[in-house]
Give the backbone structure.
Amino acid sequence: MTALVLLEHDAQGIKQPSRSAVAAAQKLGEVHALVTGTGVRAAAEAAAKLPGISKVLVADGADYAHALAEPLAALLVALAPSYDHLLAAATAVGKNVMPRAAALLDSQPISDIAGVEDADTFIRPIYAGNALATVKSSDAKKVITVRAASFDPVAPEGGSAAIADAPAAANPGTSSFVSAELSKSERPELTAARVVISGGRGMQAGENFKLLDPIADALGAAVGASRAAVDAGFVPNDYQVGQTGKIVAPDLYIAIGISGAIQHLAGMKDSKVIVAINKDEEAPIFQVADYGLVADLFTALPELQKELAG
Amino acid sequence: MKILVPVKRVVDYNVKVRVKSDGTGVETAGVKMSMNPFDEIAVEEAVRLKEKGVATEIIAVSMGVAQCGETIRTALAMGADRGILVETDADLQPLAVAKMLKVLVDREQPTLVVMGKQAIDDDMNATGQMLAALLGWAQGTFASKVAIEGDKATVTREIDGGLETVALKLPAVVTTDLRLNEPRYASLPNIMKARKKPIETIKPADLGVDPAPRLTVIKVAEPPKRQAGKKVGSVAELVAKLKTEAKVI
Ligand SMILES: Cc1cc2nc3c(=O)[nH]c(=O)nc-3n(C[C@H](O)[C@H](O)[C@H](O)COP(=O)(O)OP(=O)(O)OC[C@H]3O[C@@H](n4cnc5c(N)ncnc54)[C@H](O)[C@@H]3O)c2cc1C
Ligand SMILES: Nc1ncnc2c1ncn2[C@@H]1O[C@H](COP(=O)(O)O)[C@@H](O)[C@H]1O
């Protein structure tokens, strides 16, 4: 059995969620990887170094420059005859592309898997992670997105796969890229960070997120947020952690002024250690926190900054 | 132009769902059901397009048990014009829903389908992408802004690194993210008016689609429970514990 994993990459190489998707694919058999974009030679070479991949297929061309779903799904469908499983990380790209490819293959996608039981059987969270379903697919081709937080990523180096060109697929040409507005940050990505510090509505204003910066710097942490904080315009949408935002499972998650709604917990409750600072001792976040501090965040954060510096 | 809006009946987002003790699913008996929150946003977007004069008719479609008719009524009270209920007791999965929606789209010929990005029960995040694929249409998923001009939709999408804007040839499928709009509450007069709006009821067989699930649920289990930890008395104690006990900093 061979699985094909659609990889995402940036200037640093293959993204961590994609390396987690490779780890999930390795539980299924032989693994090939697909690298797409324009000028992706370096990314293809980075992919070839991932341990446990036997072949890297490269689709280099303007059609793939912006990971539009229509041409990417067409490409996956063209490649599908050689594979039993098609996988991608459950990122914005994976979630956009994989179900489209699945429908074209008359296959019911298996979204956001958190475990692999066997070649047909997978575990996936439902109801915002309040239940775990074990599901068995009867489709010939399994199309899967992988919850990156549930699989330790493969190392960036160690392998030496062959690189080959993917056969061309026609671009349906129904959509085109206009522009992107990407948040700039020197910090690690939320889904890859070892430590995440998130602020909620309790932060009161976007301005106050600056209080998190020195702490994030001291801990090498990524900064996240609850939906309420994003909706209030304190921080951009890509900060959102939760059922409908990003799923994270860092070694340490620090929730500041976040009540702990199930939709938020869905995105962080698999973190190894959870810390909550909230002035309301009844806040549900304390039911999942390993360490809870009942305090006003506006006094606690400067103290925390000092403690970490000292 | 016509807009088709699929609306799913799901366990209300405020309900703390419980896994059934026999591991076959979650408890839904006696539980409050509502329209999937993302679908409310989809209905709202369609209604706003109608209010702007872009859309002429909004058709709300729901698939599932007879009570999905109530979900359609909610959409009608928000401003949709008529409803289609595809009634079945089958366990509907996105592929079957997408196939049935495709037949309805072929019949109704909407220019736009606006739907939720994700149903908060199965958390699949798949049906819109699948419908777009089956129709050969463009897709604008996770939309936080939609503008229609002529034969083109410009959609701003929430992606991992921020926002991305794409142009779609119409007809197209758009799936909604949370920040696209804030859905209105239906007013009492509109709830009354909605009672008179037509709902057509059909069966999957009328659409020529076999709704049988492709994924068999082997079991549904409770996730491992997290134990509440301890309260610390000060920031200094917190940092000390993180260093020496949890060893994470
Ligand atoms: C379909 C759907 C999907 C959703 N998806 C997500 C999601 O992905 N992620 C997500 O986060 N939410 C999501 N939500 C929203 C979720 O239900 C909650 O509304 C949200 O998480 C609340 O955010 P919050 O905890 O920041 O705000 P609140 O619930 O308002 O809590 C603020 C907390 O701050 C504390 N506080 C206030 N001032 C201070 C202070 N000075 N010092 C210390 N503490 C203070 C308060 O005690 C309170 O506990 C979703 C909702 C729906 C309907
Ligand atoms: N049974 C259904 N009836 C109507 N619409 C549905 C149904 N199932 C899914 N949908 C639509 O598809 C969207 C995504 O659902 P899903 O792919 O299951 O996460 C929902 O927000 C609805 O708009």
User: Anything to note?
Assistant: Residues 132 and 162 of chain A are 38 Å apart (CA to CA). Chain A touches chain B through 91 residues (CB under 8 Å). DSSP finds eight helices and 18 strands in chain A.
